[in-house]
Predict the structure.
Amino acid sequence: MIPRAPKGTDDILPPESERWRTVLRTFDELAERYGYQLVFTPIFEHTELFARGVGEETDVVEKQMYTFEDRGGRSLTLRPEATASVVRAHLDRGGDEILKVSYAGPMFRYEQPQAGRRRQFFQVGVEYIGEPSPEADVEVIEVGYRCLQACGIADASVLLNSIGDPEDRVAYRDLLYRFLDERREDLSSEAARRIDTSPLRALDSKQDDAVLEGAPVPIDHLGSAAATHHAAVEVGLRRQGIPFVAAPRLVRGLDYYNRTVFEYQAASYRVAQSALGGGGRYDPLAAMLGGSETPGVGLAMGVDRVVLAMPDVVDAPALDAFVVWTGAERLEAALAVASSLRGAGFSADLDLSGKSVRSQFRAADRRRATAAIVVGSEWDEGLVTVKRLASGEESTMTLEETQKWLKNR
């Protein structure tokens, strides 16, 4: 029996992988355009990093982490998210400068697998570290929103809230605790369990919507600094033309957040995990990891979720040219043609197996090539036959002319 991929993981093969490539390229190009440089961090970290940064009483740490002991007796964990790792790396390097970075890579959580929720999932994100201004929040939110737009998700919007600063939540926490405690018997077991340790997270329980109706919400209990910050974020989003909806019960599920929290949603994307991504401000995180207080804000987007939300469209050509050769004596020339096209910046491929010309044309169609470049007897005169696959139109020309034709097609 052939081994299968582990539960909650996926093999992403062509042609589906082309949609993934679209998302990854789009996000990478946007992040670079906004000034975010690339960062790589380890796939596994010391478990303490996530226990301290994400929060020991979060679902992530309590239930979802893949934790193991290595041969040296150290407790290590496959990263369930990237922000704590990026902040750790920043602190390791001194942590005394503005850092704008983007990342892409797999994360791991022991989830009950379903659409949009996998045990190994792929995220892209940005982190803007060292800048406390609300304009940084707006920029980060805009990067994710523009990515969704560029991927064809026209109905994307932002759910926006502020949970204030830690000092704002002292009195609010007591108020919320009393509200929840009075309704303890009516809450789900999960929400009831949270009351005594982390009542704020009970607000995020979708199955308790009816019970939580009328619950006090963080945004009504902000201090003056957090309220001013939030108002400036709203002004900035309007200025940038980014649609947002007030979501007073949005709190996110990790301990390091303060002030701005947000999620991306789209009306056309309807699964249990309806958020395409999200993030927020995490000014307390650096201190939680043992560093000096350092402001930060970031976002993460699930590539698999964005792919699911993308509209069904006719796939664009995947190759500029597929080189077809008419006999064994033409293989060397075909390889030279493909190499020349690639060197000129075109995507080109060919079938090396020696199949018939008809089979090679079928392969060109499967690969969604714009044109087939035929290397046949005309090559003896320095010419190739160029066939536009969509229309069947053919022309004979030099390789240099072929490159001009591909560039202007």
Remarks:
- The mean pLDDT is 91.
